[in-house]
Write a structure and sequence with these properties.
5-stranded parallel sheet; two-component regulatory system; nucleotide-binding; 25 helices; kinase; disordered C terminus; 24 strands; transferase; 6-stranded parallel sheet; alpha/beta
């Protein structure tokens, strides 16, 4: 069955009109005859949105019972049975009520897509998992409801629903988004103009990046080489010289002038390795460009202008920034230089900026070795000099008589020139032809191949010997130079690879992208399989081209062990490149293994934590739980004894002992279960606006009536909490305070409001806790001092802090002036900023509507 298509309406904040746009699209599709149903849409009491639900078929929601309440979620099975062409599923990042089919709504959507049902959904930019820290730094609020970025990236269509901050605030002020009693709090907190502007920029940039990805894929799929200037991309050509810093800063200023500008610094190293690049300077320039928000790229290419232009066109760049040449005036006789060549061949769509700097015309730091590898042009030149040169020289010498010795020296010079240009074979051809011409034209008898004077035979023999020796030495030097240059190039690349490891670049995709850039390939993939006959799977890939499904399908494949291979597509690489490529392949395997080991270590840490908890639970059962059980059993055995007559007072005392033991058991087991839920992350608060004076008195039911003095003013603002969790947290803190408070000294429970927060302080006059132990008393199974074993398993404060943090609050210990300990429970006032990770508005996070722990 073909997978369904996902369309997402992305917004910067609640109220921009995502659900409205989604329902409008549904009506358009229904009018065209498309079978479209509403799987789950929440109108949040907005009249215009609610009106759009009329006329659309709505799948009945599933009802779930949780903590004594009834909640509704999307009925995935009902939607699958109905099998519509299109299903509307609002709020993609929503967390389902515990007991639902899936933990997250995006997982429900994945099931619908797998069943071939198209889905239209909505999500806000702050719910993307990768942007959690950014959103928190902007708004001071960490989003608990998140959706993996990859889920949104895989969407077939993403449509941005945009609205200016001023327009959104007007909509809120008119009551089109929230109820009137929530508008003022929302406008003064989460929906401040600065917050909305920053979130809007995040949404625009994120969508722009996705559009850029789609554009690159389209250009690669359709083999479009022409530059499309959709955004300013500025390529900086670096030589490794000190002028590179000036070029990078200039490019950054150019990028700032256009929205979404991007800087790509590229260093092109010759494959022979004989360039005057300073590794230290390149490292400094790499750090500089990354600090300015750009990226650094390392590319190998013999023809630097062509490689630079290929990189720029491949990156869809619009501008190239180069420095003015450092060559001196006389050096231009060897060619126009990189800058002039790039400017001439860039074409009309690629602008080239030549930037002046302090190193202009000062000469290169090191001489550039030319022709370390004998290319085709040099070999052809060598043959021309070795074959045509002696003939032309003979014709010239026929017009002038310089003597046999001078003639031999001139022919020897041609042989050396042929060796320098073309290597050994052209030099040998030049020596042989020169010997023949010297014998025929200049050695008596002339115009005959015989030699009359034996001295001339010796002279010609010496000429041949010197010519062959010089040619051999020159050719050997060229070969050794080429080998050294090749090794230097490999060392440079391997040094770069080692540097990336030392810098902590452990991403497999980043490493594969480096391989693709270095060798100029279209795509690179790391393939693996579990057995010799199992299919290959892709462990990681880079590039916009199609990745090969098997190593045999790739242009270049490098095996890594028995069941892993690095596959490259784009062109066939020479055998000399495979040694370096093998190092990259080995590093890719190491990175993949490290990633998996980190995942295994994380799972091991979770298992270790679970084992620690289980061990502590067993210790609690073997010690603390046995005490009340023994007391209950002793009291029951006494009551059942037939040989003893108990008075009513004695029976009442034994029954009271049984009741006390049962209460202690209930308290201990409750804390153990709560700690287990906190450790496994299954506590999901149901946040509601709550009055402290309604919850705190209920939390004091487990302590003696005269042991606590309560001071909770009725004028306090309401707090955004889960009433059940708050009651348990306060009960644990108060019971702990009463336990350590001296006889006759009551514990004070007082509340006050401060700057959008409400503090509940539990003050005792007990022995107190030293500063170094204040953090440890909140750890599970920790009890301070010489507390008796019957005092509990040390979970009360750990559970209280866990519940407080789950509600977005804090619980800390302070010294009581005059002696004792004060527990400070800080909660967010309804409509205040506080420490709650949820937005200030109640409809922002859907779990506030129905999710529960």
């Amino acid at each position: 069955m073909a997978r369904g298509k996902l369309r997402i309406y992305l917004g910067a904040a609640p109220g921009v009109g995502k659900t409205y746009a989604m329902l409008s699209e549904a009506h358009r599709r229904v009018e065209r005859g498309t079978d479209c149903v509403v799987g789950f849409v929440e109108h949040h009491g907005r009249p215009r949105t609610e009106v759009l639900l009329h006329g659309l078929e709505q799948i009945p929601r599933a009802e779930l019972q949780h903590r004594g309440g009834t909640f509704t979620e999307m009925d995935v099975d009902a939607v699958l049975r109905r099998a519509p062409a299109v299903a509307l599923v609002d709020e993609l990042a929503h967390t389902n009520v515990p007991g639902s089919r899936n933990a997250k709504r995006w997982q429900d959507v994945e099931e619908l897509l797998a069943a071939g049902i198209d889905v239209i959904s909505s999500v806000n930019i702050q719910h993307l998992e990768s942007l959690g820290d950014v959103v928190k730094s902007i708004t001071g609020v960490r989003q608990r409801e998140t959706v993996p970025d990859e889920v949104v990236r895989r969407a077939d269509q993403i449509e941005l629903v945009d609205m200016s901050p001023e327009a959104l605030r007007r909509r809120m002020a008119h009551g089109n988004v929230y109820q009137p009693d929530k508008v003022d709090a929302a406008l003064s907190n989460y929906f401040r103009p600065g917050n909305l502007t920053a979130l809007r920029e995040l949404a625009l940039l994120w969508v722009a990046d996705r559009v850029d990805e789609y554009l690159n894929e389209y250009r690669s799929r359709h083999q479009v080489s022409k530059i499309w200037g959709s955004r300013e991309r500025i390529v900086v050509g670096l030589t490794g010289g000190p002028e590179g810093r000036t070029l990078i800063r200039r490019a950054a200023r150019l990028a700032e002038k256009g929205a979404g500008g991007e800087v790509l610094a590229v260093y092109i190293a010759r494959s022979d390795g004989l360039t005057s690049a300073s590794p230290k300077e390149l490292a400094v320039q790499r750090t500089l460009v990354e600090n300015l928000g750009g990226t650094f790229h390392h590319v190998v290419g013999d023809d630097i202008p062509a490689a630079l232009l290929d990189f720029a066109r491949g990156a869809n760049a619009t501008q190239i920034v180069l420095g003015s040449s450092r060559r001196k005036a006389w050096q231009y006789v060897f060619g126009p230089g990189v800058g002039a060549t790039v400017a001439r061949e860039s074409g009309p769509d690629l602008d080239v900026h030549i930037v002046t700097h302090d190193e202009v015309a000062k000469g290169r730091g090191l001489p550039v070795a030319r022709g370390a590898r004998l290319g085709r042009a040099r070999i052809v030149s060598g043959w021309l000099v070795g074959v045509l040169g002696p003939v032309l020289l003979a014709l010239l010498l026929n017009t002038v008589d310089l003597g046999l010795a001078n003639d031999m020296l001139l022919f020897l010079a041609l042989t050396v020139a042929a060796a320098l240009l073309g290597g050994l074979l052209p030099a040998l051809a030049s020596a042989a032809l020169g010997t023949f011409l010297l014998n025929y034209y200049y050695t008596p008898p002339l115009h005959r191949i015989t030699i009359a004077d034996p001295k001339n035979i010796v002279a010609l023999a010496i000429f041949v010997g010197v010519a062959v020796s010089v040619a051999s030495v020159v050719d050997l030097a060229a070969r050794r130079t080429h080998q050294a240059a090749r090794l230097r190039a490999e060392a440079e690349i391997l040094s770069f690879l080692a540097g990336s490891v030392l810098r902590g670049e452990s991403s497999l995709e980043a490493l594969l992208e480096r391989v693709r850039e270095t060798f100029g390939m279209d795509s690179v993939a790391l393939l693996e399989r579990t057995g010799d006959h199992d299919p290959w799977t892709c462990a990681g890939r880079a590039g916009t081209g199609l990745s090969p499904a098997r190593p045999e399908d790739a242009d270049v494949d490098v095996p890594v062990g028995d069941h892993m291979a690095l596959a490259l597509s784009g062109r066939v690489l020479p055998a000399s490149d495979r040694r370096v490529l093998g190092a990259f392949a080995a590093q890719a395997a190491v990175v993949l293994d490290r990633q998996r080991l980190e995942q295994e270590a994380e799972r091991a840490r979770a298992l270790d934590e679970g084992n620690r908890i289980r061990t502590a639970l067993l210790a609690a059962v073997s010690h603390d739980l046995r005490t009340p059980l023994a007391a209950i059993k002793a009291a029951v055995s006494s009551l059942r004894a037939e040989d003893v007559s108990w008075s009513e007072e004695d029976q009442a005392e034994l029954l009271e002992a049984i009741e006390d033991g049962a209460d202690r058991l209930d308290h201990l087991v409750g804390n153990l279960l709560d700690m287990s839920r906190l450790q496994t992350g299954t506590v999901t608060p149901l946040i509601r606006a709550t009055d402290l004076d309604e919850v705190v008195p209920m939390a004091l039911g487990g302590v003696p009536e005269d042991s606590v003095r309560l001071d909770v003013p009725e004028s306090l603002p309401m707090v955004a909490v889960d009433a059940g969790l708050l009651e348990r947290a306060v009960a644990n803190v108060v019971e702990n305070a009463v336990k350590y408070s001296p006889a006759g000294r009551r514990v004070l429970v007082a509340a006050s409001a401060h700057a959008g927060r409400v503090e509940l302080r539990v003050v005792d006059r007990g022995p107190g806790v030293p500063d170094e132990a204040k953090g440890r008393i909140f750890a599970p199974f920790q009890r301070h001092g010489d507390a008796p074993r019957g005092a509990g398993v040390g979970l009360g404060l750990a559970v209280a802090r866990g519940f407080a943090e789950a509600m977005g609050g804090t619980l800390n210990a302070e010294d009581t002036p005059g002696g004792g300990l004060t527990m400070v429970l800080t909660l967010r006032a309804e409509g205040g900023s506080g420490t709650d990770p949820r937005p200030a508005d109640p409809a922002e996070e859907e779990p506030e509507r129905q999710a529960a722990p």
